[in-house]
Amino acid sequence: MRNSKNCERRRGGFTLVEMLVVLAILVLLISMVGPRILGSKQKADISAAKTQIGMLMAALERYVLDMKTYPETDVGLSALTEDPSSEDEKKSKWEGPYITKSSIPKDPWGNEYQYEFPGTHSETSEKKKEPEIWSMGPDGQDNTEDDIVSWESDKKDKE
Questions:
Q1: Which of 22, 55, 75, 157 fits 71 for a cystine, CB–CB 3.0-4.6 Å?
Q2: What is the pLDDT of residues 91-106, one digit of tens each?
């Protein structure tokens, strides 16, 4: 009689082997799903950076309609939010802000967008007359393969 009661009492919980099997299954599932979730986040960040660059380029186009030229590199994207204080002629043309100061985003990795005019990366002479905006990408370093750039369409046009 005692033996049957002890057996019944021991069967109430899980054995160590059963727990290890369940943990192994969970680890296997996480290892399969985890990279897909992280890959989706990375794709979303890249897509957000491209969208923000497009938004900034559109604001620059509105700026050009009034000012007849893009802002110089040293002024950068701040020209979209701050009126030019140096020259009265420019000040009278400026119809901004073309984007609110809080709308100038940082890239998805927390870095400032880089700006250059006239552009130096484009291979076509027509595109060199346009500004270039880029994000330094996930690594935060300039001129690396993970940079997200506005002039990338030149490469696609050639192919």
A1: 75
A2: 667 787 888 777 788 9
Q: Which domain holds residue 74?
A: 48-158
pLDDT score at 155: 44
Tokens of 12: 């109430």
Contacts of 137 (CB under 8 A, 6+ apart): 49, 107, 109, 144, 146, 147, 148
How big is the chain by its Cα radius of gyration, in Å?
A: 28
Does any domain span residue 7? no
Tell the residue number behind the tokens 């890239």, with chain if given: 107
> Is residue 71 situated within a structural domain?
yes
Contact criterion met (CB below 8 Å) for 132 and 126? no
Q: What is the CATH number of the domain that holds 137?
A: 3.30.700.10
Rounded-to-5 percentages of helix, strand, coil across the chain: 55, 5, 40
Pairing label, strands 114-116, 132-135: antiparallel
- Which residues of the chain are under the pLDDT cut of 70? 1-12, 85-92, 122-128, 153-159
